[in-house]
Amino acid sequence: MSGKYELVKQYLYEMELPIISEDPAEELVVVEDQERGVNNLIIDCEEPILILEQVIMQVPSGNGDVFKRLLQMNRTLVHGAFVLDEDGRTILFRDTLQLANLDRNELEGSIQALGLALAEHSSELLTFADKN
Questions:
Q1: Domain ranges, ordered by start, for the chain
Q2: What burial class does residue 106 get, using C-beta atoms within 10 Å of its C-beta: 0-12 exposed, 13-18 middle, 19+ buried?
Q3: Residue 119 in contact with residue 112, Cβ under 8 Å?
Q4: What CATH architecture does domain 3-129 belong to?
């Protein structure tokens, strides 16, 4: 287990972000805080980066306009981006940070960016989800 994994956990503790599950062998935690828009956010230490990933929704039918709009939304995000999973069936929020010089402010900024992105675009994302 790397010191960076423990450092990430310490930052989450300091931010009062509850860890709902953890896999120390994989250096992975899942956090949740509905008030911040965080719902099963996976935080994975994968040297040399830290990966933050949260499922947003399944890709709706008639997805051409949805994909275009997601790219436009990405332009407004402070950190991270809306992306597709490997199968192209699920829309995720994803951000990556360098572990070598990671500090709490950087991690907190990425998590806050997720909440801000969802707050700013939630009504439109819900409209997309209704197409399923």
A1: 3-129
A2: middle
A3: no
A4: 2-Layer Sandwich (3.30)
Could you say which DSSP state residue 131 is in? T
Are the C-beta atoms of residues 52 and 42 closer than 8 Å to each other?
Answer: yes
10-residue mean pLDDT profile of the chain (132 residues): values are 89 96 97 92 97 94 82 94 94 96 96 92 84 62
DSSP-based three-state secondary structure for 83: strand
The pLDDT value recorded for residue 63 is: 67
Chain-centre distance for alpha carbon 3: 22
pTM, full prediction: 0.91
Token pair 């990933």 in the structure block, residue: 53
Query: How many angstroms separate the CA atoms of 92 and 105, rounded?
Result: 23
Instruction: Report phi then psi at 103, rounded to 5.
Output: -125, 170
Angle of the 104-129 helix axis to the 64-74 helix axis, nearest 10:
150
Residue 106 carries which side chain, given as an amino acid letter?
E
DSSP three-state, residue 20: strand
- Structure tokens that stand for 81 in this block: 């981006």
